[in-house]
Amino acid sequence: xxxxxxxxxxxxxxxxxxxxxxxxxxxxxxxxxxxxxxGVAYTLLMRPTSAGAADQPTCIMxxxxxxxxxxxxxxxxxxxxxxxxxxxxxxxxxxxVFAAPFLAYLYVAWTVNQLGLPFKLPMLQISNKxxxxxxxxxxxxxxxxxxxxxPFTYFFV
Length: 157
Known about the structure:
elongated
């Protein structure tokens, strides 16, 4: 049998790739934490509950079609969650309220594991089936919240 040849050519790395490889391990979690902090600060400063869903600024889908988009009410739900009012947050955006603890744990576990501490947190193993079910439920929520009938008007924002 003839010997197998393996080519060891690797394309040259760009400046951006070299920069990423030189960053400290804590830079990724710190950057994501800064973005989360900015979102929390924006939510607290803008007081989204004092304006209606159709007031400016509004999303382009709501402006053009009059329908609530899949993310409509998310900022108000975040504001209510930050103030501990979970039922009001679920009224504005139930899928966000459901997903928030999972997203928070994923961020904390990723950060702890990146910092090289002597202990590790287990990462959530979310199956594809669970992800598809969540996305299908979010899609159903997005459609049903736009229906004008009694059981669905609870989720109208």
